[in-house]
Amino acid sequence: MVLHGRTAIVTGAGRGLGRAEALELARLGANVVVNDFGQPGRDGTGAASATPAQETVAEITAAGGTAVAHHGDVADFEQARALVRLALDRFGSLDILVNNAGILRDRMVFTMEEEEWDSVLRVHLKGHFNTIRFAAAHWRERAKSTGEPVGARIVNTSSEAFLAGSAGQPNYAAAKGGIVGLTTSTAAALAKYGVTANAICPRARTRMTEDVFAAFQAPAAGLDPLAPEHVAPLVGYLASPAAARITGQVFVVHGGMVALLDRPRVAARWDTAKDAFSYAELDDTLTPFFAAREPGETFAATEVLGLRRGQGG
Questions:
Q1: Where is the Ketoreductase domain (predicted)?
Q2: N or C: more exposed end of the chain, with fewer CB within 10 A?
Q3: DSSP H helical segments within the chain, as ranges?
């Protein structure tokens, strides 16, 4: 019960990853605010419903835990404010924020509509920002009033799509890349208040990834390597006091594996003895270098992780 007495918000917790994470945090002793807007379509369409969040709350309470449901849209600034306020009003504190809510509107970049771009950035990136903004303001005020670090935790959900690209998901890849930048910036801004912020890139079989992992059949017996339950323990760990020294990091996680991503490193460097390169010098220098590489060849990290283009949670 390493999280006993602590309160967590988990967004998108009615199904899939968020549900597994909420159950794990409750198992570790946390009070959980289960947020889910409850739309039936993975593209964010359909009427909102209170049922998914309430079902997760029912699972938690049936197992002896404590939870409350919130049915708001975290991409709405005021509803995100209300989510944080619910945690404070109901449990008297907020210690953990897990951002997981998201939708998909897949399309190639040359056919994508403006609304398909805006909606995905709104839910993923703005949704992460909104909850962080109000949680961070609360933690900053708490630290200033007590003079003590608050020991709070933020776990954001990115994707390997930001690293390897995903041809039919320019909106999703951009949003997930933005979440990494938001995470590292938040970690730097909140370190003085005793708040950590990290991101995970999960591979898990959920309704958002059913197409990606369709070829990977779940085993007839035993735990599916792509089950969300493989991801949840890392979230629980990052939310715990044991992870106090871990912040500004990005992890890849799936069945039986946790990998820490390195910051981008310089792959090659060229210098000129002059004040600046000329076009001719760049042609002489860069063209042979890239002629020896496959078009679009990127970070070696993709090879280490066994990642193919279009793969990732």
A1: 6-231
A2: N
A3: 16-27, 51-62, 77-91, 114-121, 127-146, 161-164, 170-190, 232-238, 279-291, 301-304
Summarised one tens digit per residue, pLDDT across range 137-170 is: 999 999 999 999 999 999 999 998 888 777 889 9
* Alpha-carbon separation of residue 135 from 26, 113, 153 (angstroms): 20, 33, 10
**Contact residues for 75 (Cβ-Cβ < 8 A; gap 6+):** 101, 122, 123, 126, 127, 130
- Catalytically annotated residues: 159, 172, 176
Whether the CB-CB separation of 68 and 84 falls below 8 Å is answered with no
Q: Which amino acid is at 30?
A: A
Q: Could you tell me whether strands 250-254 and 152-157 are parallel, antiparallel, or unpaired per DSSP bridges?
A: unpaired
41 CB neighbour count, 10 Å cutoff = 11
Q: State the chain's mean pLDDT as an integer.
A: 89
pLDDT tens-place string over residues 233-278: 999 999 999 999 999 999 999 888 999 999 888 888 999 999 999 9
For residues 169 and 312, the answer to whether their CB atoms sit within 8 Å is no
C-alpha neighbours within 13 Å on the C-beta side of residue 242? 11
Given pLDDT bands bounded at 50, 70 and 90, which one contains residue 48?
confident
Taking the CB of residue 287, how many other CB atoms lie within 10 A of it? 9
d(C-alpha 229, C-alpha 204), whole Å: 9
Q: Find residue 200's DSSP bridge partners.
A: 157, 251
Cα–Cα dist 77/26, whole Å:
27
Question: How is residue 288 written in tokens?
Answer: 């042979």
- Give helix then strand counts, H and E, for the chain: 10, 8
For the cut 80, the answer to whether the pLDDT of residue 304 exceeds it is: no
Q: Give the model confidence (pLDDT) of 179-225 as tens digits.
A: 999 999 999 999 999 999 999 999 876 555 555 554 556 666 666 77
Pairing between β-strand 195-202 and β-strand 152-157 as defined by DSSP bridges:
parallel
